[in-house]
Write a structure and sequence with these properties.
Strands 1-2 form a two-stranded antiparallel ribbon. α2 crosses α6, α3 packs across α5 and α4 (76-87) runs antiparallel to α21. It has helices at residues 9-23, 30-44, 49-60, 76-87, 94-102, 116-134, 145-155, 162-171, 175-181, 186-193, 203-218, 227-242, 246-258, 268-271, 279-285, 288-297, 303-310, 332-347, 358-370, 376-384, 386-413, and strands at 6-8, 200-202. 62% of the residues lie in helices and 1% in strands.
Length: 418
C-alpha cells in the first residue's frame, strides 16, 4: 500500500454490513434490504443528500449492536444503544450512530420539540426494517405485497409516521421495487446506485472502522473480549521490533483488527464449548479465515490487508487452513499475524482451559517453528522482547476491557431508557 491510499466507503460498508447479515442467518441480506428500502424512501421524500447518506449508513449498520447467538429475548432499545456506542467511535459516522440509537422508537414516543430530521431518519429505517422482516424468504415476493401493505396500515400513526407510510406505498407500487429488493444482485445495485458511490476514505479513516469492527468481533463471546486487541498490539510491536515502516505497521494493525471477521459466522455454541471440539465442529471453525477473505476481498484496493488478515491459520509447510498456502505465499505481515494469533490464543483463558504461562507457550511455539509451521525468527523476536511486548499488549487490552465494562457490559445487564 502507498501513501495517499483511498478506498470507496460504500464498497467497504456494504461488505462489512454483509458480514453482520451472515452472522444473523435467519434473515439473509437483512441490512442490505433495509438499506435499499430506506434509500428509495429517503430519496422519494426529497431529503437532502447529507441526510440520505446518514440514513444509508445507519441502515447498513443498524444491527451492529445485536447480541449474536444470544438466547435472551431481544431488547431492541438496548440493541440500539449498543449500536450507537459502537458506531460513534468512528468520528465521521457519529450522525449515523445517532440514527441507529433511535431507529426502534415508535412515532408516538417522539417528543414534539425534538430534532425532526433525526425523527424522520429513524422512522424511515424503522419502516424499512419492519418491511423486510415481514418478507418470507421462501415465497415469491409479488405474492406478498398486499399483505405487507395491510400490515403497514395497522402500524400507521402510532408506530410509524403517516407521511412515511404513504411515501413507501407510492414507491412500492412498482414491481421493479420488490424485484430489486429481493434480487441476488442487491449488493451491486446498492454499490452503483447508493449515495456513497463516489465517497473515498483514507487509510486513517479505514483504521478507525477497523477499530470499530474489532469490538463487534470480540464482544461476540466472553472468551474473545480482548483477543483482536491483543493480536493487533502484538503484531504492531513485532512490526516495530522488526523494523517495518510506519505505513506498514498501520496496515498490519488494520489487517489484525479484521483477521477474525469471519468468526462472526461461527456459532457461539462451538466457540464456547467446554471440551475438545469434534471433527465436524472443527471443520466449521476452519471456515472463518475463508469468510474473512471473502468479505474483505469484495472491497477494491485491500489486497494486502486481505492476505495478511485471512492467512493467519496458514503454515509455512502448506498444512494450514483453509487455503494451504506455502512459505512463498506468506509474506512478512501474514507471518507476523500468524505468530501473534497463536501467542494471544495461548495467553487467553478458554472455555476448556486456563491461560498458559510464558514457558509453556514458548515450548509450543518453538516446536511449531522447528516443524516449519510458523516463522521462527518472529517467535524469537517475541520472546527475546517478551516483557516489552506483553506490557504493550496489556495496556491495549485494558483499554478494551474498560470500554466493555463501562459501557457494553452495562447495556447487556441492565435496563436503559431511551
Amino acid at each position: 500500500m502507498k501513501e495517499g491510499f483511498t478506498i470507496n466507503l460504500g464498497n467497504l460498508l456494504l461488505s462489512l454490513s454483509e458480514s453482520i447479515d451472515m452472522a444473523n442467518k435467519n434473515l439473509p441480506q437483512h441490512q442490505l434490504r433495509t438499506a435499499f428500502i430506506a434509500l428509495k424512501l429517503a430519496r422519494h421524500l426529497n431529503l437532502d443528500e447529507v441526510t440520505i447518506e446518514n440514513i444509508f449508513i445507519a441502515s447498513l449498520l443498524h444491527d451492529i449492536g445485536k447480541k449474536i447467538d444470544s438466547e435472551e429475548s431481544i431488547d431492541y432499545e438496548l440493541q440500539c444503544i449498543r449500536g450507537e456506542l459502537f458506531v460513534q467511535r468512528v468520528p465521521f459516522l457519529k450522525d449515523a450512530a445517532k440514527i441507529i440509537r433511535y431507529h426502534f422508537l415508535d412515532w408516538k414516543d417522539w417528543k414534539k420539540n425534538t430534532d425532526k430530521s433525526l425523527a424522520i431518519s429513524s422512522q424511515i429505517i424503522l419502516l424499512a426494517n419492519f418491511v423486510d422482516m415481514m418478507i418470507s424468504r421462501d415465497r415469491y415476493i409479488l405474492h406478498q405485497v398486499d399483505n405487507i401493505w395491510k400490515e403497514l396500515a395497522r402500524l400507521e400513526d402510532g408506530i410509524l409516521n403517516t407521511e412515511i407510510v404513504g411515501g413507501f406505498k407510492e414507491i412500492s407500487i412498482k414491481e421493479e421495487f420488490w424485484l430489486d429488493l429481493t434480487s441476488y444482485r442487491l449488493y451491486s445495485i446498492l454499490l452503483h446506485e447508493g449515495p456513497l458511490k463516489k465517497t473515498e476514505i483514507n487509510l486513517n479513516e479505514l483504521a478507525s472502522i477497523g477499530d470499530l469492527f474489532k469490538y463487534v468481533i470480540d464482544f461476540k463471546s466472553e472468551y474473545t473480549i480482548t483477543h483482536t486487541t491483543g493480536v493487533s498490539a502484538c503484531s504492531e510491536m513485532l512490526g516495530n521490533l522488526f523494523g517495518l515502516t510506519e505505513l506498514e505497521i498501520k496496515v498490519l494493525r488494520i489487517a489484525s483488527n479484521f483477521h477474525d471477521l469471519g468468526k462472526l459466522i461461527i456459532p457461539n455454541s462451538i466457540l464456547e464449548k467446554k471440551g475438545e471440539l469434534t471433527k465436524d465442529e472443527f471443520e466449521i471453525v476452519k471456515s472463518h479465515p475463508y469468510y474473512t477473505h471473502q468479505i474483505l476481498n469484495s472491497i477494491d484496493g485491500l489486497q494486502q490487508i486481505v492476505q495478511w488478515a485471512s492467512y493467519h491459520h496458514e503454515k509455512l509447510d502448506g498444512s494450514g487452513y483453509p487455503f494451504h498456502c506455502v512459505a512463498k505465499n506468506l509474506d512478512t505481515g501474514a507471518r507476523i499475524i500468524a505468530v501473534s494469533d497463536i501467542f494471544i490464543s495461548r495467553m487467553e483463558r478458554k472455555s476448556y482451559r486456563n491461560e498458559m504461562g510464558k514457558d509453556k507457550i514458548f515450548e509450543i511455539m518453538k516446536k511449531m517453528g522447528r516443524n516449519n509451521f510458523i516463522d521462527m525468527k518472529f517467535v524469537d523476536l517475541l520472546f527475546n522482547n517478551f516483557q516489552i511486548v506483553v506490557n504493550y499488549i496489556h495496556i491495549k487490552q485494558e483499554k478494551t476491557l474498560d470500554f466493555y465494562r463501562n459501557y457494553m457490559e452495562h447495556t447487556w445487564r441492565e435496563d436503559c431508557d431511551l
